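Sharing a chain and its predicted structure for anyone who wants a worked example. Both blocks are below, sequence first, C-alpha cells second.
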Amino acid sequence: MRKLLLGEADLTEWAGDPLTCRYQLLVRTTPPPVCCESYGISVEIVQTGEREEVWDLTVRPDRIQELAEQLIGGGVTPCSLRDIVEDWL
C-alpha cells in the first residue's frame, strides 16, 4: 500500500478559520491472478487530523486522476467524501 500526495485546498475563506484539506492517492497492488493496482482517495484536514479514506475505487489511473482533480477543485472535506464518491461511481 502506498500513499501519494495529490494536492491541497485552502478552505480558510470558506470556513472562516484556518482550514486546509490534503488529498492523497491510495495505491494497493491486488494479488494474483489479477495483478494490477487499485486506486482510492484520502482526504485529511491538516489542522485537526480528521481523515476519510475510500479504497479500491478504480484500476484506471486516468479515472482516479479525474476524480482527484474534481475533489481538490471542489474543496471536498472528509465528512462529504463518501457522498461525493458514491455520486461519482
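Comments welcome. The mean pLDDT is 93.
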